[in-house]
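Q: Now give one record:
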Amino acid sequence: MESLNVGTGQLFAVLLASKRIVQHCRTASEISITRAFRQGDIRHNFADLAKVGAATGFAPRFSFCEGLAQFLDWAAAQDGLPAGYESSLREMSERGLLHG
């Protein structure tokens, strides 16, 4: 079967998504933009739903913000952090992928 791209079909900035997460989680986390883009980073992207809609009749039932809120509620209801979480943060930091 051919791969199909699925999403909301609308452009949504990572900064706005980050702000929604901070707001939803009621945290005082600060968001900083380093502008330290790496070669190969995708700067702008969104799902074109024309192909998947034609093939399957798919249409999103939720906006990005609604889906994000549902995901965050689900994640908050999960028990604890997955094994290896702390080591993954340490490794990302060592590789220069985690700032702050």
Summary: Residues 14-34+44-94 form one domain. The chain is about 40% helix and 0% strand.
